[in-house]
Amino acid sequence: MSTYNIVVVGAGVTGLTTALLLSKTPANKVTVIAKHMPGDYDIEYASPWAGASYMPFGKKGSDHAEWERATWPALRDLAEHQPESGIHFQDITIHNRLKDQNTATGQWSAELTSANPWFKDFVLNFQNLPRDQLPPGIDNAQRFTSVCINTAIYLPWLVSQCMKNGCVFKRAVLKHISEAAETHHSGKKANVVVNCTGLASRTLGGVADDQVYPVRGQIMIVRNDPGSMTSISGSDDGGDEVSYIFPRAAGGGTVIGGTYQKNNWDPLPDPNFANRIMQRALKLDPRLVKEGQGVEGLDIVRHGVGLRPARTDGPRIEKDQVDGVKVVHNYGHGGFGYQVSFSCAEKAVGLVNEIIQQQHDRAKL
Fold it and tell me: Is 4-358 a CATH 3.30.9.10 domain?
């Protein structure tokens, strides 16, 4: 049987999911190379800092929306049948303020906070809250059952699933994407390289995509558990500040955030932002602390900053050839990498298969 050597560059949620789907075909021999691996916490490595939850942002009818629709069944299946993945069901309440519609956070969440969103027919238990149940200043709100992902469990779980299928993991730092073709664990040149380097695609040789930019998110993880997830379209603290609360599975703590700061590379948690994040979280869901405690009642595990790998024209999922190396790109997913991970990986795998089929056909001539 013919075998095909594939190198996936990047070990965030996009790279790991792509490697997992590729490795399900026995003929594919997959090597994953990355500067950062699950267990690392680094400003360049966005996936560990994610909330992470399923909250669709894509505009109705867009590729983004279809990717989110197509990924939901996989996340739902993991929550139902493989709780060891660190994914569990959580109710979420989304609050919308019309005055946020022209802010960075309001535009980011416009579809999510719509009173009639496209995803209402397939997420679980969707309902619009009656107007008499809305908090002051809220124009509409919705509630549904989503999933929350404990990234500290899920990313290593993806690694373990890849390894069960024979994937080999190697740390490496590349200056040029074409170098990846020489890093396959077989010692032979790769048939295809899959570029899942996220924000690094901005500077990686042979890619150097100037459409890629960071969107800074500052969060904190606390031990407090309010019992369900909550989010809102914006805040009065600034157009790029927002509030969300995500209790993670398996003792992962509760993520509270956050910020949506485009082109901000600052890797250090800002104490002023941290204070505002805590104040907003308590206002959004007072159940976080006992009555009368205030922010002093928040038991902080850690502060963190992640740079969402956004791209001006949206994710790049396409075939390429760089210095004679066949490349498939899958990067630029911004703050929605988890909730499009499976569908975008499936598209990337389809492109890899096209390249392999072409190589196979030429070899027969």
Answer: yes
